[in-house]
Amino acid sequence: xxxxxxxxxxxxxxxxxxxxxxxxxxxxxxxxxxxxxxxxxxxxxxxxxxxxxxxxxxxxxxxxxxxxxxxxxxxxxxxxxxxxxxxxxxxxxxxxxxxxxxxxxxxxxxxxxxxxxxxxxxxxxxxxxxxxxxxxxxxxxxxxxxxxxxxxxxxxxxxxxxxxxxxxxxxxxxxxxxxxxxxxxxxxxxxxxxxxxxxxxxxxxxxxxxxxxxxxxxxxxxxxxxxxxxxxxxxxxxxxxxxxxxxxxxxxxxxxxxx
Amino acid sequence: xxxxxxxxxxxxxxxxxxxxxxxxxxxxxxxxxxxxxxxxxxxxxxxxxxxxxxxxxxxxxxxxxxxxxxxxxxxxxxxxxxxxxxxxxxxxxxxxxxxxxxxxxxxxxxxxxxxxxxxxxxxxxxxxxxxxxxxxxxxxxxxxxxxxxxxxxxxxxxxxxxxxxxxxxxxxxxxxxxxxxxxxxxxxxxxxxxxxxxxxxxxxxxxxxxxxxxxxxxxxxxxxxxxxxxxxxxxxxxxxxxxxxxxxxxxxxxxxxxx
Amino acid sequence: xxxxxxxxxxxxxxxxxxxxxxxxxxxxxxxxxxxxxxxxxxxxxxxxxxxxxxxxxxxxxxxxxxxxxxxxxxxxxxxxxxxxxxxxxxxxxxxxxxxxxxxxxxxxxxxxxxxxxxxxxxxxxxxxxxxxxxxxxxxxxxxxxxxxxxxxxxxxxxxxxxxxxxxxxxxxxxxxxxxxxxxxxxxxxxxxxxxxxxxxxxxxxxxxxxxxxxxxxxxxxxxxxxxxxxxxxxxxxxxxxxxxxxxxxxxxxxxxxxxxxxxxxxxxxxxxxxxxxxxxxxxxxxxxxxxxxxxxxxxxxxxxxxxxxxxxxxxxxxxxxxxxxxxxxxxxxxxxxxxxxxxxxxxxxxxxxxxxxxxxxxxxxxxxxxxxxxxxxxxxxxxxxxxxxxxxxxxxxxxx
Lengths: 259, 259, 400
Description:
The complex is a heterotrimer. By secondary structure, chain A is of the alpha+beta class. Chain A is built from 8 helices and 11 strands.
């Protein structure tokens, strides 16, 4: 690219793209049916989103840091394999006898945690699986300028990848680092609680493959589901509660060092 | 009205009118149906391809294996943890064959020793545990209880064993303090081993009146055993409130002081 | 995409401590530094212009029209870096179609449209209408057509009509001041309202943005005025310069006090983020914040400007000091934007580690493009000045 081309690009391309986008959009809309409203049934079939409100429980004392959830998530959701993009990942916390806290997450924990400290130095240590908290009061939805990220009727926070403009304000606004910019679609991407699975009665992929049952998926209200038992018998914590985001991923045995 | 205002106002009205018309045609018809987003986006998310079929799908054809697995210690481990995403296999079992990991590298993802893993979770040291033998030559992954009952405690309690080996308690066998019935090796959670219950137990070796050196250490060159006056030394506390029996740190402190 | 992965793989090695795995990619690049810088210059230049109109500061009159044109030139370019930075620039119009009213960023479209269409263009139109009408009669060819269109058909040149232009211009300026405050205060709000980021999250952010905008706008006008008079081989109006320099000094004192207030407040409260922010300041931001922003960009020009107030210096030296101070100030304000935008992304939201920003050279989010966006307003200004000469002697005198 020489200087002249660059200048040309800058002066012509941004407004050109803008107008071109408008034009294409007009064309594509003219082809569609004039009404174009979408009923819940045509989206979900027999599933009724009003009857559900989802959340997840994570028992830190059960996590063995095998990274199967990270692997399953990448497979299920076509998350890029490169270790810079995660919908879920596992962190390892090691609090040493000197009182220092060491945290790491090599490649998100997808290959486990091979390197270890000697026990002599360890005061306490544990794994913490992380994912989108599907906040009840989501800062990402608040800041999205165009309505490309939203909370569904059943309480799941999703991204509209065909509408997202890629401004990345939501990535900045998420206190948990749960979002990334998908390198292929150039739109924001994050955990969906495997929405395409749960509306068909399946478990999210990470929950399906967790070998120790450290992840429990279920609903906030009804008592006859696995999460209800989890929230009844554990003392719960959420991440960064002081930000008032209302996370719906509940942690049992959460340590004060976890951020 | 001055001429300027007339024309300016006219222009403004025209502009606003054009904007409203353009907006009317460009906004996606399903936008705002269920919230500030395109309902069409829900269709896109819900129609995402499923990769993990879920364990229920496996029962249909592999009932025998599932019956075996569901009685074993791997009952909580879903098929797709090891056999990877297999929804395609449920659709066309001959075209898509799920992988079955057979190498020694796979099992340590969960069962390799890592101090961060929760105590009690079965872990081995891959370097020392029957080196070079594939795991499946002794353990059936669908019913992993080893064919030969372990004689020692270490195969299951690696974390404790590796901690203890560095401590002054290294020469003591586990049975010095814990009484384990034979049943414990077969059904660990059903028949739990005993634990010391009172101060007097530790006093057998560490009180000033204890015999010297204790029988158990007579074969070795006996180290100097720290002794305390059981009456005045923090009476009212249990010994393990301050000293971790598998690694009595008090000793470490003393060494540090002399240094 | 391979290039992105390579860059990220490089960044991973530069990480100290722990950052969330998704935080390796730094999302708001130098283009987002340029954007608040440009809007700041717009707001600053406009507020300077309004001094003459609303507060009757007669000394700065020579810069009035120039300030308005400068504000327009920069305002036209201001959204370009934003659009260029989007993952999907072709979808940018959605921000006007389905704005999320709870989003600070969605308001951009409206604040921008309000400021451009209702304030700046209308004020310029009233200011220049008389001239445009006369030019549309005098000029020939393309220029004539342009002027004719710009009259919007309002060609009445009666005494009453001209008087109305003056009144309307003043009214728009009065509306314009809060609008300019809104335009840049709002940009500060975009950052100040991100509660996830302790470096940004501060109520003072919009205020600090605003005052730094005023500082940068005045500095820019000093610079532009001096350069333009040099090229036009005209004498520099020293009373105007002195006044501008005074305003620059006062604005800087206010701005610097506010920044210090923010700084002291953070240290005194010393919330959980203080450790990592301290680390950030003494390592990654030391040069750009302590040396460039505070020392070179603020304290040095303040000392020199104060010197011109306290001592009686010859015109030559004063001009030199004003010129140097203006340049240093502009660099200093740019590094403020840098330290806010880039600095706020150099530490992990886990508050446990620091990462690094590797700027591209070419590429759409690179240094060259950023420089072009900084140069582009001057090219536009050149065209505007050619079409609408802002000098006193170019103004058309109507024969009564």
